[in-house]
Write a structure and sequence with these properties.
Blueprint: H1 2-74, E1 80-88, E2 91-98
Antiparallel strand pairs: 1-2
Length: 104
């Protein structure tokens, strides 16, 4: 009888240890998955920030050029002529040409 109880306790102890190891292993896998997700998120954010800064720079330059062109046209010094329009990366860009001669 004592032998049977010892065997049952040994089996139960073995099962509990196996469950504990399995739970620990699952937690480690989850930590690795979270770490990989954070690394990917960090990479994606850096890429998005670089792309945003590039686009922001392009729009700032475009705004300055438009302001210059409108100032020249409103002052009556130059004429405005639409040169071309094309689509790049989903955005439409319009190129304006200012005639080089001064209006009289």
């Amino acid at each position: 009888m004592l032998y049977a109880i010892n065997k049952i306790l040994l089996v139960v102890t073995g099962i509990l240890i196996a469950l504990q190891i399995n739970n620990w292993n699952d937690r480690e896998k989850a930590k690795i998955k979270v770490s990989e997700s954070l690394i990917k998120l960090s990479y994606d954010l850096r890429f998005d920030i670089q792309k945003f800064n590039k686009i922001d720079s392009i729009y700032d330059q475009w705004l300055e050029e438009c302001q210059y062109i409108f100032d020249e046209v409103l002052s009556g010094k130059k004429k405005l002529r639409l040169m071309s329009m094309f689509q790049e990366e989903g955005h439409f860009s319009i190129f304006l040409s200012v005639k080089a001669h001064i209006l009289k």
